[in-house]
Amino acid sequence: MKKFLIICLTACSLFLVNMDYPFAHGTKAKPESIQFTEVQKSEIAKIHKQILADKKKLIEKYVEYGALSKEEADKMFSHFEKHYKMMEEHNFQISPHRPHTGHTHK
After folding, report:
1. Tens digit of pLDDT for each residue in 10-62?
2. Which of 34, 54, 92, 100 could form a disulfide with 44 if both were Cys (CB 3.0 to 4.6 A apart)?
3. Residue 45 confidence (pLDDT)
4. What's the CA gap between 51 and 43, in Å, rounded?
5. Quick check: pTM over 0.85?
């Protein structure tokens, strides 16, 4: 019984040590979103369109070389276009990302 209790307490303490406490990383206030001017939006849109075109070229090469099927490529193209439309709707604001914490990979 004593061994079982010690094992349980050790397991609980290891679990608690590995927990990610938000205050341990110094929580930061959410940055305010920046309102882009029309010129800035058009420049960002131009860059995003170029990235979209480059991604499409890359996927087409994968299809040409047989690494992807045409259906998979079409699915990826529609995903890219949906993402671009979403970015356009949100005025090209970068979505907030949560930090990747708690990873113990070495």
Report:
1. 765 656 556 555 555 555 555 567 889 999 999 999 999 999 999 999 999 99
2. 92
3. 93
4. 13
5. no
The one-letter code for the residue type at 90 is H
Provide long-range contacts, Cβ within 8 A and 24+ apart, for 71-78: none
Tally DSSP H helices, then E strands, for the chain: 3, 0
Asked if 28 and 98 count as a contact pair (C-beta separation under 8 A), the reply is no
Q: Which amino acid is at 64?
A: E
**Hey, what's the torsion of the CAs at 17, 20, 25, 30, to 10 degrees?**
-170
Instruction: Count CB-CB contacts under 10 A for residue 59.
Output: 19
